[in-house]
Design goal:
Pathway: Carbohydrate metabolism; galactose metabolism. It is an enzyme of class 2 (transferase). The chain has 359 residues and is an alpha+beta fold. The protein has 6 helices and 14 strands. The strands form 2 sheets. An 11-stranded antiparallel beta sheet has the order 1-2-5-7-9-8-13-14-12-11-10, with helices on both faces. A 3-stranded antiparallel beta sheet has the order 4-3-6, with no helix packed on it. β3 and β4 form a beta hairpin.
């Protein structure tokens, strides 16, 4: 995996530079008068009605909110006084979030008991900047640059999965103000959770039941079924398949699967990483061609650790958008937000057909 160049920010947070061949990172001293970081800044509270942990992170109320372009904290800051990336330029950088939902290390999270149960909000939250170009997007990246982002994801996944107390590593991107993005510079985030998130736990439970009944992997069987049906396939090659899932919950939803079973991005071969970059850029390009303005989306990398509890997990990416037409958004109102009962306004087959046509 690519070895990054490491530096420190003024308050002691880690900063990592991932660099294209022929480029040399040149960080400068971060001279901002940042306050010292507190020890444990967040907490977990256990919801006994659902069996789920809730992160309480009041410090995030003070996070940067829609700054003007000339004050973007993700653009390069060659003076060391203005930016989270004190450097003249960069290719891809990762740094600890200044306003983290989770921070600090510790032992594995103990099972919750009765009463009002709290626990330290340990874990790790990182920001990954895909490019120094403030007006760009992931879909605009050249293939070699997109591949470098994948290398950064791969490096951070390996590092975080090896950290005591971290159970799940989640790389993701939110794109578009409609999604809730407050910094328009192209970037994503990487979370190291001290527990399995509810969706991951539910999918692993289903996959375990499937294996007990059928002796096969649920995700692999779903992929084979989508390929056999064909009506929801968006793009496919020897290494990866992109499709709209049969029971898509979002107006635009595409899943990308490697054609062989792997648990996380670390397990992909070099050829598969190249193939992943190609099909990921392909799908994002189709997203941007759907309407006259770029499609707001969430990109979620579903990854699993090499443990018995997560043995049935199959690495894949889920891309989703709340835009249901050129002029309308899908709001997650009562049925979706209160009951987690999704209602789709479009057919998955129709969305897949539209995306296939957007070559």
């Amino acid at each position: 995996m690519t070895a990054p160049t490491r530096a420190k920010l003024a308050d002691g947070r880690d900063l990592l530079f991932f660099t294209l061949p022929g480029h040399r990172p040149a960080p400068v001293e971060d001279r901002r008068p940042l306050p010292a970081r507190d020890g444990q800044q967040t907490e977990l509270r256990f919801d006994r009605t659902t069996g789920q942990w809730v992160i309480v992170a009041a410090l995030r109320q003070d996070r940067t909110y829609k700054p003007p372009p000339d004050q973007c904290p993700l653009c390069p800051g060659p003076t060391g006084l203005t930016s989270e990336v004190p450097a003249e330029d960069y290719d891809v950088v990762v740094f600890e979030n200044r306003f983290p939902s989770l921070s600090g290390s510790g032992p594995a999270l103990a099972p919750a008991g009765d009463g009002f149960v709290t626990a330290p909000g340990q874990g790790r939250c990182e920001v990954i900047c895909f490019s120094s170009d403030h007006t760009g997007s992931f879909a605009d990246l050249p293939p070699a640059h997109a591949r470098l982002v994948l290398e950064a994801w791969r490096h951070r996944t390996g590092d975080l999965l090896a950290t005591p107390g971290i159970e799940q590593v989640f790389c993701f991107e939110n794109r578009g103000e409609e999604i809730g993005v407050t910094l328009t510079h192209p970037h994503g985030q990487i979370y190291g959770y001290p527990y399995l998130t509810p969706r991951t736990a539910a999918m692993l439970d289903r996959a375990r039941e499937h294996r007990m009944r059928h002796g096969t992997n649920l995700f692999g069987d779903l992929l084979a079924g989508e390929v056999a049906d064909g009506s929801r396939i968006v793009a496919r090659d020897d290494l990866f398949t992109a499709f709209v899932p049969f029971a898509a919950r979002w107006p635009v939803e595409v899943h990308i699967y490697p054609n062989r079973f792997v648990r996380n991005i670390i397990d992909l071969t070099e050829d598969e990483l190249d193939g992943f970059a190609r099909i990921y850029l392909d799908v994002l390009g189709r997203f941007d061609r759907m309407y006259s303005s770029p499609l707001p989306y969430i990109s979620a990398l579903h990854q699993y650790a090499d443990t018995e509890a997560q043995a049935d997990g199959y690495f894949h990416v889920e891309l989703m958008s709340i835009r249901r037409s050129a002029t309308k958004l899908k709001y997650l109102a009562a049925s979706e937000s209160a009951m987690d009962a999704f209602i789709s306004d479009v057919t998955p087959e129709g969305v897949a057909r539209r995306l296939r046509e957007l070559r």
